[in-house]
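To: structure desk
From: M.T.
Subject: fold request, one chain
Message: Could you run this one when you get a chance? Sequence is below, nothing fancy, just the single chain.
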Amino acid sequence: MAVSENNRYPLISVIVPVYMVEPYLDRCITSIVRQSFRDIEVILVDDGTLDNCGKMCDDWAKKDRRIRVFHQKNYGLSAARNTGINHAQGKYLCFVDSDDYIETDMLEKLLAALLEQQADMAVCNFVYEYERAEQIYRKNPESYQNDIDQTITGREIMLMAEQGKHSYCVVAWNKLYKRSLFEKLRYPEGKIHEDEFVFHHIMSACQRVICLRYTGYHYVQREGSIMHRNDSMQDAAEAFLERCRFFLERDDRQMALLSEGEALSAIKRMQKHTCRRERRQIQKEYWQIVKILSGRKDISFYTLLKRFIWCRIF
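Reply: Done. Structure tokens follow.
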């Protein structure tokens, strides 16, 4: 296994945003410090947690010199990740959510595959883990899983996201990245669907992505998760509209059209959970995108008419 070229710095930086996860934090950190690949640093970002997690992070740092802790006010997940990125010293980055945990060989397998394939990013499968009434059961989401090892382009993985493997592709946490992918990129603060806002930027910069059938990440489902909030659809719609504009600027009509469809689905789901003024603003932005696409003949007249009628009655 490769080691860092410069002995002063670790090869992999593992970034863990921490907020109100006291029952889960020890398990998460334990799974990271026990990795079979040892040349790592663990960056714990205490995002103004109100429970005992801040002290737990400091206690872990006293036990393992590879752990560094940063305390900050509660600015949200994106800000915590950005703090981790800004302080990371590794050549490669990995994100782990603090209520999740990873297999002890995940980093070793991801790094080996990335180096062997000379890839910009390595991705592994994950398993849903539900905790209810003190019982744990796991679900391997077949529609999201990769059943073979394959090396593809970043654009191909964006297409995979549109074909039913959304979580596998879009989320930040089941991946190992070249640090250079984040040289000019940070997560947008104050957003719920922060992964959606950066996904297309990252994948557009990836020439090669190695996707593994190996399952290395445990995605813990718990009540109160931010992704289960009803008000997150406006955020998703904004992300898809931004993605659509991104592809239009690059004259990638196929990806722009796919992003338009995702935006429409998110806007429709907004109807039950957001006020009319917020919906109208998103609708206006969406209609501008549709007009651009129609001008380039990427949307048929019949589809354009349906979009127009829907926007008028929204």
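Reply (cont.): The longest strand covers residues 209-221. Let me know if you need anything else for the meeting.
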